[in-house]
User: Fold these one by one.
Assistant:
Number 1:
Amino acid sequence: MGTIAVAVEEFAAVAPEVVFDRFGRDGGGWLFGASCDRVALGEPITLRAPIGDGPPVDVLGRISDLRRPDSITITHDQPWRGRIRLRFTVAPGGTRIRLDAHIDAQGLEWLMRRRGHPVRDRAATGPRIGALTSRSGSGSVFASAVANAAVLAVDEIDVAGGIGGRPVELLHADDATDPGTGALEALRLARAGCRTIFLTTTSATYQAVSSALTGHDVLVVHTNMNEGGGESRLRIRLGERPWTQIALAAGPVMRSSGGRRWFLAGNDYVWPRTVNRIAREVLPGNGAVLVGEGYAPLGARDFGPLIERIAASGADIVLDTFVGADAAAFERQCHAMGLRERTVSLGPAMDEATLERIGFEASEGIHGVSGYFQHLQTERNGTLLQRYRERFGRWAPPLSSLSESMFEAIHVWAAAARQVRTTDPTPVADEMRHGRFEVPRGTIALDGRHHVEQPLHLAAARGATFGSMSDSDCTVRTGAARTPPGRRR
Amino acid sequence: MSTDPDASDAFGAGDRDAGLAFDALADPVRRRILAVLSESDECSAGELADRITTVGRTAVSTHLRVLRIAGLVSERRSGRFRYYAIEPGGAAADVIALLRNLFQSSLGEARSAAESAAGHREPARREAAG
């Protein structure tokens, strides 16, 4: 109920086992070139669906049921939440293949917009906020759990009475990892009555949105890691900053790799460029040697020449500022080309959702540095993980610093709105900017001058997820000294 | 509520139907009706009411009227019977057809891949059980 089912059938003149066993092999034609490292229960899987013009859209999910040779079920979260079930039954002379796909209202809306149908948003019934993130394009990998995290935060706020006794309404939008699309979608959210828009996107999209909403009375909150800059009364940028990330991680990563030669590699836009400029300033002071720097545009999938340059440079450590699907493709190719035997990598935007797409074998030697990892042992994180799994099930993508940042930003907004008894952007923003908040990543504090203080942690890949490194020198508080929490949400 | 000067004219009259379409899709019973219709070419009002058991016949008729006004469903009368189908030119028909075509062609590719994998081996001769 609540979803539309699409069913199609086909006949193949071979036994069910043959059909079943071809699935996921060699990317060979089976269901949009379905690719996964193993056809096994729980395995992440990517389907590349040719929806509309432009490059195919990645359907990101995992194998949620597997019965050889009878059926394969894929549960996916991008670009919408849904389920695709394949059934193979013996028929005279071969196999009847039946595919059932379920699409919900959000998925229908996404498809209608992607197909160019004008879709009007419903009349508002309560305070309305927008969540702009990447449901498609390279960012759909790092953002795979972001929409879920936003839904969970709003659910919790509404269960606790909403804001001013009215439930908060959440509108979703997809920037398609493209700044221009992001700006248009942000304008749509603003026209639909969203007074605050939360962005878990690239900094390139943030900049385009911030500029497109100039003159609109809308608060824009960039939730995830970013280079900072452009803040104002209605522009708040939370998230990890590159200077503290690199300063924390440089020493331990060099000790763990046994080397000090760094190569800076990333996507060609403002955040990677800024991270690398900061790395050029910070790293030499830590005894590091810079041996090269290289970029590829967002959406790149072949990094061969760049990886050859890295290999030739004799680098011990790659500072990886690729994002999402690009980071996954880059790291997989590094592994395939044998680079991993000589180098480790540190990714300031590397998260659990991306690591899972890099896979078990290719993940070894990858480090992340963030304010949040799923394995954090805070009480609020325990509650968050439990509620997330209860709400979205065991097959939903992992939480990470990016999705948690959306969750906490919405809660911080709600705490501020309750405090000032309004959802008007300016008083809410002023309240948020001076607050200290208890969230799953710990205590975050804003000092009124666009500076966010939060604990940072270094982690290393353990299989296809992150685990903590020895904690003694790898967790610090950034910014001012710790003071007791002032306000709790 | 919005202070945005564009708000009043953001959606011109030409967009009205698509707006109605999404309003129409917001209801679970209406989505269920569309799901049933998407599985067949045409359905009589009686058949639809038989298959939608969560609400009564009168409610099904009301939902059908909303879907028809939104341009998602078409109605054909024959004697005292009414038949319903997904409106061929509507947004819902477009995205459902898109999905159906996508999946159908992917299964076609799957068949080719499986049959060529079997190569020159004897085609399967198993009979359906029962």
Note: The helical segments of chain B are 16-25, 28-38, 45-51, 57-69, 91-118.
Number 2:
Amino acid sequence: MKRRTMLAGAAALAVSPVIAPGARAQAGKTKLVLWHAMTGVNNDEMERIARDFNAAQSAAELQVIYKGTYPDTLTAAIAAWRAGQAPHLVQVFEVGTGTMLGAGRAVKQVWELVKETGAKIDPAAYLPAVRGYYSLTDGRMASMPLNSSTPVMWYNLDAFETAGLDPTKPPQTWQEFVVDVRALKEKWASKSQDLMASTSSWITWAQLECYGAIHNVPYATKADGFGGLDTELKINAPAFVKQAQRLLDMAKEGTFKYTGRDNAPDPIFRAGNAAIGFGSSADRGNIARDAKFRWAAAVLPYDPELIKTPNNTIIGGASLWTMTTPTRTPAEYKAVASLLEFIGQPAQDAMYHQHTGYVPVTLAGYELSKQQGYYEKNPGADIAIKSLTRGTVTENSKGLRLGRLPEIRNIIYEEFEKALQGQQNAKQCMDTCVARGNVVLRAFEKATKA
Amino acid sequence: MDRRTIFRGWLLPVILVLPQLAVTLVFFWWPAGQAIWSSAIRADPFGINTEFVGLENFRDLFADPLYMDSIVRTVFFCTAVAALSIGVAMLLAVAADREIRFRSAYRVLLIWPYAIAPTVAAVLWILLLHPQIGVVGRWFNRIGFNWDYKLNGYQAMTVIVLASAWNQISYNFIFLLAGLQSISRSVVEAARMDGAKGFFRFRTVTLPLLMPTVFFLLVANLTYAAFDTFATIWALTGGGPGKATEIMVIKVYRDGIMNQDIGSSSAQSVVLMAGVIFLTALQFRFLGRKSGAT
């Protein structure tokens, strides 16, 4: 009996389409489905966009569906495309951009969509550091920026005061940083075993990828991968080794503590256990909610021995990709285009920015937020934009276009963890990262060219 | 002697067998076939460009020293988990087999952990052992023991072995207790009258009679450690630090889902499948022979 029920269930699953019945649109409306990976406040905001979009026009009905983490969402979208059931739009994290660009006919890039539907989407309206990440080398936009953030340096004002540092003057250079954390360690962190002078989320993104961008040093050959699939990592160059060495030295000194991969260290700063915590600017909402101390944000430090005028940092976050199916009609693509136009409106962009803590992706959205007095009421909320618009965007600060970047990041975590355990020095660590990372890049090149 | 009843007709038997066959086909043969097929292919994630490469994925895999490390690590992990969980469960079962007060309450409490989802169990362990927020972890650091399983590979391995073994103890406990209770009292009492005491009696009388159960549990625990511990490990360490806790299933997931390298991931699944087939064959052979003899 149980088995029969199971069979019946399996049959029902097989027959029912991937799209939930809730997506059934009212007569005459084009049904749009968007898969995303947003949780909490950010998920509410996706629902808000769907409500507003559905109220603003009558041609299409948008349904947003949460599909799990970023990798889960990407995997689900790929599986769905293979089954001819891809959603109209899928939110893909920035490091999946290389994979999506290799997706050929599975996706319709923004410029193609604009050409086919005549939608009014102007690349120049978007922040250069945001647009660059999601565009082809010739400037044509491939995907639509949605949620973007950048690493910033969160710091605890109370800790700075206790350590005798000026809370209005966070370290601007790495040289100052190294000195300041010593004071923080001696006069503040030494009070309890739980406290640490500094820690960092996203070591790969904040301490290496953005480091290359800020100092205008290539992360990989071929313009950080934008110029071709035959790119090779360059992170064993002296500048990166110097940075790795600095982190390792500080770890040894006890002024920097490694507390995990990706965003695992975030809660440590929020709990008030780190005087300085590098992390995504998008963590602002969580810090505001949890922190029981005074805090502020600053742009990432730079090394004046490498560059006099530091450049912009690299974005993180995700963008929206239009997907294809064999049966998708021009009307559906038109509806997709109208949605992309809708979320690019300054009012929508500003609202999204203020509700979520991500940066505004359009210049107009930023201006509007300024006019609305958002930054006066929320001091420091524009640090991320300042960080993204600092200096000029060069080919080393546009972003990374590397296939299987998540895997490469993971390799770097593994090797850096080994270096922290004293199993290898900074140079060996970065050399191994390059050697192992290049194997991944070659595998991606072979698979994509095959 | 052979009195078989032969039913006429073939339609009814076929209909009766069909659901079973369909389930096996849909849930085993089909995905397994897919895995074997994908393991011989190199493709981009979307499967737009595919190329048949034969055994190249396997060649790459076995030429990769990191994969060999992963196999060694998996064998060590599985052995440690099986030994620890069966060992502890054995102690508990022997203790619970005696006449003690509140015996049933005690047993129910021992069975509880089995009902806890692996991820939840992992969170509980994090709350205990995390160097910054865990109760025990913080205590370790306070007394001067440098505890940080996020950075120390050996400590990380200890943590996942503990967490995985703990989750399996209840299961082993149930089987061992049942096994102990099925041992005839008269045998044990005869041994007692012959003067066999305590551990000696356990080793020479109880344990041999319990061996079929232990062997079954050994295979079940090895399979559990190799596959079902994924959620626990993923939540606890994610395979790190370095690759210190990246056992084979973690690598399959990382390569297939995170890295979208379906070819290599499938090849690894096929290797794992071979491992399970071997273990199962072993179990059938030994247990089958035992029950066949009696």
Note: The longest strand of chain B covers residues 41-43.
